[in-house]
Amino acid sequence: MEIKKYTFQRHGDDRGMLVALEEMKDIPFDIKRVYYMYDTIEGVRRGFHAHKCLEQILIPIHGTCKIHLDDGFTTEEVVLDKPYEGLYISNNMWREMYDFSPDAVLMVLASEFYDEKDYIRDYDEFLKFVGAKV
Ligand code: TYD
């Protein structure tokens, strides 16, 4: 599985840092939705789903967390610990988020509006959907 991490341009000076993200330039899709997770309870694992069409970029704008990715055939664990790096997650990818530091704020840029019909929340159904299981 190819891990696609984006390193964003940092505008730093003696006042501090700034990162600007524009759709179809820094982000490879039109951004229809932004959401973020914070105050995730220690030890909690989130996600446990895939999307049929949605593309996303996950950016740990504060703190750290880990992402478990599964395309139905192989898995990867990715550490997110830089506020200027984003992890691209394509459609048809099972994801779980874990090991959130207490100060973690995980921001997600998404290519579509929220649509519960786009979710696959059952792992067996996911494996069938991607052709990893008959
Ligand atoms: P959920 O999908 O359970 O989060 P996670 O991926 O961390 O497991 O979403 C939590 C709640 O937030 C659920 O009630 C749906 C709602 N929600 C929205 O209303 N809009 C959104 O864009 C997202 C991602 C979730």
Task: Write a structural description.
This protein has 1 helix and 12 strands. The chain has one helix at residues 123-129; strands spanning 4-7, 10-13, 16-19, 33-37, 46-51, 56-62, 65-70, 75-80, 85-89, 94-98, 105-110, 119-120. The strands form 3 sheets. The protein has a 5-stranded antiparallel beta sheet, with no helix packed on it. Strands 8-7-10-5-12 form a 5-stranded antiparallel beta sheet. Strands 2-3 form a two-stranded antiparallel sheet. A hairpin with a 4-residue loop joins strand 7 and strand 8. The radius of gyration is 15 Å and the shape is globular. The protein starts with a strand and ends in a 5-residue tail after the last helix. The model has no long low-confidence stretch (mean pLDDT 97). Bound molecules: thymidine-5'-diphosphate. Thymidine-5'-diphosphate (TYD) binds next to strand 4 and strand 5. Thymidine-5'-diphosphate (TYD) binds at residues 33, 35, 37, 46-47, 114.
Distance between the termini: 21 Å
Q: Quick check: average pLDDT?
A: 97
Please give the order of strands in the largest beta sheet. 1-9-6-11-4
Helical/strand content category: mainly beta
Largest sheet: 5 strands, antiparallel
